[in-house]
């Protein structure tokens, strides 16, 4: 079960962290939020309806959370219990991540379930 939790940490870390880099680059160059598979990457979701627009500091903080999640995966794969704690802390951000994407359930829910066992 620990290996599954590690893989799920890496899945979410790289799946959301890597597309974050071009989004930051696009905002730095003044082009706005880029489209990814026809949808705005990191923009146009629930947060913007409440007036929180996508910004470079917000994307930078999100990238930091993705890095922490990758570290949690590495620690879990290595069998260290601290990986579960780091994974739990970074999974808390996953709730807002899925809310921003207007989704009800995502890999973080399964990751938390794997960490419980």
Model description:
70% of the residues lie in helices and 3% in strands. The protein has 117 residues and is mostly helical. The protein has one domain. It has a two-stranded antiparallel ribbon with strand order 1-2. β1 and β2 (39-40) form a beta hairpin. α1 packs antiparallel against α5 (107-116).
Beta fraction: under 5%
* Biggest sheet strand line-up: 1-2
Number of discrete domains: 1
Helix content range of the residues, please?
A: over 70%
What is the N-to-C succession of helices and strands? HEEHHHH
**Total beta strands:** 2
Structural class: mainly alpha
| Intertermini distance | 7 Å
Poorly predicted spans: 102-108
Radius of gyration: 15 Å
| Overall 3D form | elongated
Oligomer: single chain
Overall mean pLDDT stands at 75
Helical stretch tally: 5
What does the largest sheet look like?
2 strands, antiparallel
